[in-house]
Amino acid sequence: MDQRSRPSTPLATLTKALAQISRARSTDDVVATIRACARSLIGCEGISVVLKEGSLCHYVEEDAIGPLWKGQKFPASACISGWTMIHRKTAIIPDVTVDDRIPREIYSNTFVRAVAMAPVRIDNPIAAIGAYWSQPYTPDAWEVETLEALADAAATALETSEVIAALKTEQVRLPGSEGTSTAEDLSEAIGAVAGIAAVPTILDVVLRMTGMGFAAVARVTETRWVACQVLDPVGFGLKPGDELPIESTLCNEIRSHRQTIVFDDAVEDAQYCDHHTPRIYGLRSYISEPIILADGAFWGTLCAIDPTPAKVNNPEVLGAFRLFAELIAHHLDAGVRLRATTASLERERELAELREQFIAVLGHDLRNPIAALEAGTTRLLKEGWTSRSPLVLKLMKASLSRMTGLVENVMDLARARMGGGITLVVTADDLTTTLQHAVDEMRIAHPGREIAAAFDLPAIIPVDHLRLAQMLSNLLSNAITHGSERMPVSITATVIEDELNICVVNGGRPIPPQQFDKLFLPFKRGEGRAGSQGLGLGLYIASQIAQAHDGRIDVRSDTNETSFTFRMPLKS
């Protein structure tokens, strides 16, 4: 009987299921695979998959003759899955009505009368798999062993999925790099080969030229052999993404010596007649050519195999394989170069945006103190020296100091855009004086607007006073620009339960809901009055200053008023 038409035995079915679980690359894949196979393998009438979430057991999936608890969460101390994970051993309950570990009220509305529950990862359980029967029943040893085998495979797959999830947040190596490849590397390798339009044609030509029944492009590392693209008319059984144990392949040897391995018939070949690879896979003919990248790195192989002898050890076939391998390597190199070029362009785009923002910051944040200086100069020229002149000069000098500070520290904002965050210079000074100056500066710059201020603060608060003045100025400028001219802008500053609160409120039209997510993005302008100017940096800069102080800015807007509230915990 042909092997491919032979019916599957229970052992073969279990082996396939375990292999499928082990290949899963996410928690959802693991759960779905267990749901699809566990019940039929064990012969039970229901299964459930339970994930540990802190002190809770989350019943995430089930396959049963009746509803169980999918989607529900129970305390670990109140369910048998929790007992299994806490005690790190399989629980076998022939009759749920006479076992104290079973919460009977939870089972009363289900068909369940017998349970076997196995923990996933014995040393530190992260999940559990349960099997259920509708009558009192003591499962056979093979049924328990099958359940535990599924749990062991799930443990490995879930750990792998955790690693993959962690790797996706880190920078991964390019496909040509040596060493142990991560799952992300291998996924990129499969995608890179799939993106080479010539590979299917190459594999087709290889089989037509050699008369063999299977050809593949494989990524080969120190620890893994992964099929990236295959042509399999004889049904060898591999598809893209499938793996073979690296030690069982001849490609592992090719990775070491980087030479072609070829034989027409393993039975008659002196070097490979007793080799384990032909015996394991039933091979008679074989050819594998190393794929070497431009930088000299070994990437993988182009190989072909067949269970019957074939004439492949000749100059024509060897020359063609060498040419095909070089062509694949050329495409892989081109892909690496393209990704590097794309990354370089992205960096240049970020730098261009940063330069634009640098100029915009100077133009935006210097506008208010410049306006204050202009207003003060105009008043002095118009009124001459009066009793208010010393106050005007004092405010003008303070504005000059703030302008100097902004110019000196503008690179901090550039660092914020590049991920470094704004640097603070914390001093223990009178914050009321700092905030009052920012308000006075805004009143001079906008003499026609009413700005009410009320401060109730301790004498000394350790913050970056220059930065908070900058933040308040931006919030006030936003309120004046987008608020109603007929309604006052108010600012309050208080300390409530060791939290500093600075709130700026204006009347006028509410902020549209679709704009909330964009309020603190750079270069995003709201819908202010016609003719209003600004580059949309004020709220972004304010939010960065708040974050640098371990604080936040909360926004509330309705038909009555709009408020921006800075909240910062004060360290005792």
From TrEMBL:
<dbReference type="Pfam" id="PF00512">
    <property type="entry name" value="HisKA"/>
</dbReference>
<protein>
    <recommendedName>
        <fullName>histidine kinase</fullName>
        <ecNumber>2.7.13.3</ecNumber>
    </recommendedName>
</protein>
<dbReference type="GO" id="GO:0000156">
    <property type="term" value="F:phosphorelay response regulator activity"/>
</dbReference>
<keyword id="KW-0418">Kinase</keyword>
<dbReference type="InterPro" id="IPR036890">
    <property type="entry name" value="HATPase_C_sf"/>
</dbReference>
<keyword id="KW-0808">Transferase</keyword>
<feature type="domain" description="Histidine kinase">
    <location>
        <begin position="361"/>
        <end position="572"/>
    </location>
</feature>
<dbReference type="InterPro" id="IPR003594">
    <property type="entry name" value="HATPase_dom"/>
</dbReference>
<dbReference type="GO" id="GO:0007234">
    <property type="term" value="P:osmosensory signaling via phosphorelay pathway"/>
</dbReference>
<dbReference type="InterPro" id="IPR050351">
    <property type="entry name" value="BphY/WalK/GraS-like"/>
</dbReference>
<dbReference type="InterPro" id="IPR005467">
    <property type="entry name" value="His_kinase_dom"/>
</dbReference>
<dbReference type="InterPro" id="IPR029016">
    <property type="entry name" value="GAF-like_dom_sf"/>
</dbReference>
<dbReference type="GO" id="GO:0000155">
    <property type="term" value="F:phosphorelay sensor kinase activity"/>
</dbReference>
<dbReference type="Pfam" id="PF02518">
    <property type="entry name" value="HATPase_c"/>
</dbReference>
<dbReference type="InterPro" id="IPR036097">
    <property type="entry name" value="HisK_dim/P_sf"/>
</dbReference>
<dbReference type="InterPro" id="IPR003661">
    <property type="entry name" value="HisK_dim/P_dom"/>
</dbReference>
<dbReference type="Pfam" id="PF01590">
    <property type="entry name" value="GAF"/>
</dbReference>
<dbReference type="Pfam" id="PF13185">
    <property type="entry name" value="GAF_2"/>
</dbReference>
<dbReference type="InterPro" id="IPR003018">
    <property type="entry name" value="GAF"/>
</dbReference>
<dbReference type="GO" id="GO:0030295">
    <property type="term" value="F:protein kinase activator activity"/>
</dbReference>
